[in-house]
Write a structure and sequence with these properties.
Shape: globular
Number of domains: 2
Helix content: 40-55%
Radius of gyration: 20 Å
Largest sheet: 4 strands, antiparallel
Number of helices: 15
Structural class: alpha+beta
Number of strands: 6
């Protein structure tokens, strides 16, 4: 997903879940900050590098792809952007190394989504934003894995975009090109992707890089033949999935607020969302590169307040000007604590499932915040 959903749509969902305008902005900022908090940025802030929730392109280009380097990459991307759907999934006739990667395939409504939402309850709003980013990405990034793998994440020429027509769809073959300086051509279904590399563990084969930004567009419907699915046809309906993601965020945040007694997978707050369903679906299905303006306008209709644009450095001065002993109480300090704790929780779950792809949970020290929720 992009800033339009992680920031503006998350604001809308938070407000519908009962948070105030100011609280919703804090949750939305935290959700988007997951896509910004790299080691490079943390170094600028003189903050702990192990709180990184993403990696910049230059960082990835310099990343090692030996076993230790691959574990480092997987720790970030599996925890925050490609949360595994089923850590105990079975696959016949494959070795342990491939099975470990197969079990990292992302998808919604897995046990780790439930743990992620429950983990955020009782914690600062920064942790709520982190959880909403992770939850939303399980829908957008479904069927890809947060670890470099050509077998899991590759695409090929049998990749079609589906356009509604009558009672069905017409198909148009998608063209993938590697031209970073050229925006995606939505009219002709031409999308920029990562450069093909035959090395299974090439960084080019991380996540949905081989499909470019395609999975991040709410309007798109597509089908392809993933190798991990034995080349069976797989259809992805983003308009339907993004609407479910939005409705599930509202439900999850109501649980976190204590309005709902428990968080149950495959449950959505249709009651709160239904009065706005036509408006939301209109935004989701609109064919455009980014829908910031539409989500922002919808948020302002809901709250009657101005939804400020995302400003990356909004909380930087507070953090940098605060004495070291008090930094954990600042906005970014709480985000950093929440990120370390969440990462530790996810890696620990992966490791305890018998999967070594993310290594041992050295971030587990962040789990001490389970006992310190303020």
């Amino acid at each position: 997903m992009q800033l339009d959903f992680h920031y503006y749509a998350t604001y809308c969902a938070a407000f519908l879940a009962g948070y105030s305008h100011e609280e919703s902005l804090e949750i939305a900022y935290s959700a988007q900050f997951v896509d910004e908090c790299s080691r490079t940025l943390l170094a600028k802030l003189k903050a702990p590098s192990h709180a990184a929730t993403t990696q910049m392109q230059l960082e990835l280009m310099d990343a090692r792809t030996d076993p230790v380097g691959l574990q480092d990459i997987t720790r970030i991307w599996a925890a925050f952007h490609f949360l595994p759907r089923d850590l105990h999934a079975e696959k016949k006739k494959c070795g342990k190394r491939y099975l470990d990667k197969y079990r990292l395939i992302c998808g919604p409504n897995g046990e780790l989504v439930k743990k992620t939402v429950e983990f955020a309850k009782g914690r600062p709003r920064q942790s709520v934003g982190i959880a909403m980013h992770v939850l939303a990405d399980t829908w957008a990034h479904a069927n890809f894995a947060g670890t470099p793998s050509l077998v899991i994440n590759n695409t090929n020429n049998v990749f079609f975009e589906l356009f509604p027509e009558g009672d069905g769809f017409i198909e148009k073959q998608i063209t993938f090109v590697h031209k970073r300086s050229v925006p995606d051509d939505l009219e002709n279904s031409v999308y920029t992707n990562s450069l093909y590399q035959s090395n299974e563990n090439s960084i080019m084969n991380l996540g949905h890089g081989r499909a470019g930004h395609l999975p991040d567009y709410s309007f798109v419907r597509y089908k392809y033949l993933p190798a991990w699915g034995d080349y069976g046809e797989l259809t992805k309906d983003n308009p339907s999935d993004y609407f479910k993601a939005f409705s599930q965020m509202v439900y999850a945040m109501k649980f976190i607020r204590g309005v709902e007694d428990e968080f149950v997978c495959n449950t959505y707050d249709t009651e709160s969302v239904s009065p706005h369903e036509d408006r939301i679906r209109e935004i989701i299905e609109k064919r455009q590169l980014i829908s910031d303006d539409d989500w922002k306008a919808f948020g302002e209709e809901l709250s009657g307040k101005t939804v400020e644009e995302f400003h990356l450095e909004k909380y930087f001065d507070e953090y940098m000007e605060t004495e070291k002993k008090d930094k954990s109480s600042t906005f970014l300090g709480k985000f950093i604590r929440g990120a370390i704790a969440h990462k530790g929780m996810v890696i620990d779950e992966i490791y305890r499932s018998g999967n070594k792809a993310a290594g041992a949970a050295k971030e587990k020290r962040g789990l001490r915040f389970r006992l310190k929720k303020g």
